[in-house]
Protein backbone atom coordinates (compact mmCIF):
# COMPACT_ATOMS: atom_id res chain seq x y z
CA UNK A 1 0.00 0.00 0.00
CA UNK A 2 1.31 3.46 -0.91
CA UNK A 3 0.11 6.48 1.03
CA UNK A 4 0.81 9.62 -1.00
CA UNK A 5 0.76 13.32 -0.11
CA UNK A 6 0.18 15.47 -3.21
CA UNK A 7 1.27 19.12 -3.17
CA UNK A 8 1.56 21.95 -5.65
CA UNK A 9 2.35 25.64 -5.75
CA UNK A 10 4.34 25.96 -2.54
CA UNK A 11 6.02 29.09 -3.93
CA UNK A 12 9.05 28.83 -1.59
CA UNK A 13 7.00 28.10 1.53
CA UNK A 14 6.57 24.74 3.20
CA UNK A 15 3.85 25.23 5.77
CA UNK A 16 4.90 23.63 9.08
CA UNK A 17 1.32 22.37 9.47
CA UNK A 18 2.03 19.97 6.58
CA UNK A 19 4.86 18.21 8.43
CA UNK A 20 2.56 15.69 10.14
CA UNK A 21 1.02 14.84 6.74
CA UNK A 22 4.47 14.42 5.18
CA UNK A 23 5.50 12.10 8.02
CA UNK A 24 2.30 10.05 7.62
CA UNK A 25 2.90 9.51 3.87
CA UNK A 26 5.13 6.95 2.16
CA UNK A 27 5.92 9.45 -0.61
CA UNK A 28 5.33 13.10 -1.44
CA UNK A 29 4.51 14.20 -4.98
CA UNK A 30 4.83 17.88 -5.94
CA UNK A 31 3.20 19.27 -9.09
CA UNK A 32 5.42 22.33 -9.58
CA UNK A 33 5.90 25.98 -8.68
CA UNK A 34 8.24 24.88 -5.95
CA UNK A 35 10.04 28.17 -5.52
CA UNK A 36 13.21 27.77 -3.48
CA UNK A 37 14.91 24.38 -3.66
CA UNK A 38 15.03 24.38 0.17
CA UNK A 39 11.33 23.39 0.16
CA UNK A 40 12.25 20.16 -1.59
CA UNK A 41 15.30 19.57 0.61
CA UNK A 42 13.07 19.89 3.68
CA UNK A 43 10.54 17.39 2.29
CA UNK A 44 13.25 14.94 1.17
CA UNK A 45 14.77 15.03 4.66
CA UNK A 46 11.51 13.40 5.83
CA UNK A 47 10.14 11.29 2.93
CA UNK A 48 10.91 10.26 -0.67
CA UNK A 49 9.82 12.84 -3.20
CA UNK A 50 8.77 12.90 -6.86
CA UNK A 51 8.32 16.35 -8.39
CA UNK A 52 8.16 18.49 -11.51
CA UNK A 53 9.14 22.11 -12.00
CA UNK A 54 6.63 24.85 -12.68
CA UNK A 55 6.58 28.16 -14.51
CA UNK A 56 7.97 30.22 -11.57
CA UNK A 57 10.85 27.86 -10.86
CA UNK A 58 14.44 28.95 -11.47
CA UNK A 59 17.29 27.13 -13.19
CA UNK A 60 18.29 25.38 -9.95
CA UNK A 61 14.86 23.77 -9.53
CA UNK A 62 14.59 23.03 -13.26
CA UNK A 63 17.98 21.26 -13.18
CA UNK A 64 16.73 18.99 -10.40
CA UNK A 65 13.10 18.36 -11.43
CA UNK A 66 11.79 17.74 -14.98
CA UNK A 67 8.76 19.19 -16.76
CA UNK A 68 6.93 15.84 -16.55
CA UNK A 69 7.14 12.73 -14.40
CA UNK A 70 5.79 9.38 -15.64
CA UNK A 71 5.96 6.36 -13.33
CA UNK A 72 3.90 3.50 -11.90
CA UNK A 73 2.77 2.71 -8.38
CA UNK A 74 1.15 -0.65 -7.64
CA UNK A 75 0.31 -1.16 -11.30
CA UNK A 76 -1.19 2.31 -11.81
CA UNK A 77 0.43 4.70 -14.26
CA UNK A 78 0.90 8.23 -12.93
CA UNK A 79 1.70 11.39 -14.87
CA UNK A 80 2.59 14.65 -13.14
CA UNK A 81 3.08 18.00 -14.87
CA UNK A 82 2.51 21.60 -13.81
CA UNK A 83 0.37 23.45 -16.35
CA UNK A 84 -2.38 21.27 -17.82
CA UNK A 85 -5.93 22.58 -17.46
CA UNK A 86 -8.58 20.02 -16.60
CA UNK A 87 -10.86 17.48 -18.27
CA UNK A 88 -12.46 18.87 -21.45
CA UNK A 89 -10.22 21.95 -21.11
CA UNK A 90 -6.69 20.56 -21.27
CA UNK A 91 -3.87 22.66 -22.71
CA UNK A 92 -2.61 21.17 -26.01
CA UNK A 93 0.72 20.02 -24.52
CA UNK A 94 -1.03 18.31 -21.61
CA UNK A 95 -3.57 16.64 -23.89
CA UNK A 96 -0.75 15.28 -26.06
CA UNK A 97 1.03 13.97 -22.94
CA UNK A 98 -2.16 12.27 -21.71
CA UNK A 99 -2.86 10.68 -25.08
CA UNK A 100 0.74 9.47 -25.34
CA UNK A 101 1.07 8.09 -21.79
CA UNK A 102 -2.53 7.02 -21.05
CA UNK A 103 -2.26 7.48 -17.27
CA UNK A 104 -4.57 6.10 -14.62
CA UNK A 105 -3.82 9.16 -12.49
CA UNK A 106 -3.03 12.60 -13.91
CA UNK A 107 -1.77 15.29 -11.53
CA UNK A 108 -1.16 18.95 -12.25
CA UNK A 109 -0.99 22.30 -10.46
CA UNK A 110 -0.72 25.95 -11.55
CA UNK A 111 -4.31 27.17 -11.13
CA UNK A 112 -4.30 27.17 -7.30
CA UNK A 113 -7.79 25.65 -7.66
CA UNK A 114 -8.30 22.24 -6.09
CA UNK A 115 -9.99 19.87 -8.55
CA UNK A 116 -10.59 16.16 -8.28
CA UNK A 117 -12.55 14.63 -11.12
CA UNK A 118 -12.68 11.50 -13.19
CA UNK A 119 -12.09 12.14 -16.88
CA UNK A 120 -14.49 9.67 -18.51
CA UNK A 121 -13.36 10.55 -22.02
CA UNK A 122 -9.65 9.91 -21.37
CA UNK A 123 -10.22 7.37 -18.58
CA UNK A 124 -8.14 8.70 -15.69
CA UNK A 125 -8.48 10.34 -12.31
CA UNK A 126 -7.51 14.02 -12.56
CA UNK A 127 -6.14 15.74 -9.46
CA UNK A 128 -5.03 19.32 -8.98
CA UNK A 129 -4.23 19.66 -5.27
CA UNK A 130 -4.65 23.43 -5.29
CA UNK A 131 -1.93 25.49 -3.61
CA UNK A 132 -0.04 24.53 -0.46
CA UNK A 133 1.89 27.81 -0.25
CA UNK A 134 0.95 31.28 0.94
CA UNK A 135 1.31 33.19 -2.36
CA UNK A 136 -1.62 33.48 -4.75
CA UNK A 137 -5.31 34.30 -4.78
CA UNK A 138 -6.45 31.15 -2.97
CA UNK A 139 -8.14 31.58 0.41
CA UNK A 140 -7.39 28.11 1.76
CA UNK A 141 -4.07 26.27 1.39
CA UNK A 142 -4.76 22.74 0.20
CA UNK A 143 -3.11 19.38 -0.40
CA UNK A 144 -4.35 15.84 -1.11
CA UNK A 145 -3.75 12.52 0.61
CA UNK A 146 -4.34 9.39 -1.45
CA UNK A 147 -3.71 5.71 -0.90
CA UNK A 148 -2.96 3.35 -3.78
CA UNK A 149 -3.49 -0.20 -2.57
CA UNK A 150 -1.32 -3.16 -3.59
CA UNK A 151 -4.20 -4.11 -5.91
CA UNK A 152 -3.99 -0.67 -7.57
CA UNK A 153 -7.16 0.79 -6.07
CA UNK A 154 -7.35 4.49 -5.26
CA UNK A 155 -8.65 4.73 -1.69
CA UNK A 156 -8.91 7.08 1.26
CA UNK A 157 -8.64 10.24 -0.81
CA UNK A 158 -8.69 13.19 1.58
CA UNK A 159 -8.50 16.92 1.08
CA UNK A 160 -6.24 18.75 3.52
CA UNK A 161 -7.34 22.31 4.11
CA UNK A 162 -5.22 24.82 5.99
CA UNK A 163 -6.53 28.26 6.72
CA UNK A 164 -4.35 30.58 4.66
CA UNK A 165 -1.70 32.29 6.72
CA UNK A 166 -1.16 35.98 6.04
Topology:
Blueprint: E1 2-7, H1 19-24, E2 27-30, H2 37-44, E3 49-51, H3 59-64, E4 68-73, E5 76-81, H4 92-101, E6 105-107, E7 114-119, E8 124-129, E9 140-148, E10 154-163
Parallel strand pairs: 1-2, 2-3, 5-6, 6-8
Antiparallel strand pairs: 1-9, 4-5, 7-8, 9-10
Please summarize what this structure is:
The chain has four helices and ten strands; from the N terminus they run βαβαβαββαβββββ. With 166 residues, it is α/β, with parallel strands linked by helices. The chain has one domain: Metallo-dependent phosphatases (Purple Acid Phosphatase, chain A, domain 2), CATH 3.60.21.
Fold and architecture overview:
With 166 residues, this protein is an alpha/beta fold. It has one domain (2-163): 4-Layer Sandwich (Purple Acid Phosphatase, chain A, domain 2), CATH 3.60.21. It contains four helices and ten strands; from the N terminus they run βαβαβαββαβββββ. It has helices spanning 19-24, 37-44, 59-64, 92-101, and strands at residues 2-7, 27-30, 49-51, 68-73, 76-81, 105-107, 114-119, 124-129, 140-148, 154-163. The strands form two sheets. The chain has a five-stranded mixed sheet with strand order 3-2-1-9-10. A hairpin with a 4-residue loop joins strand 7 and strand 8. The longest helix has 10 residues, at 92-101. The chain is globular.
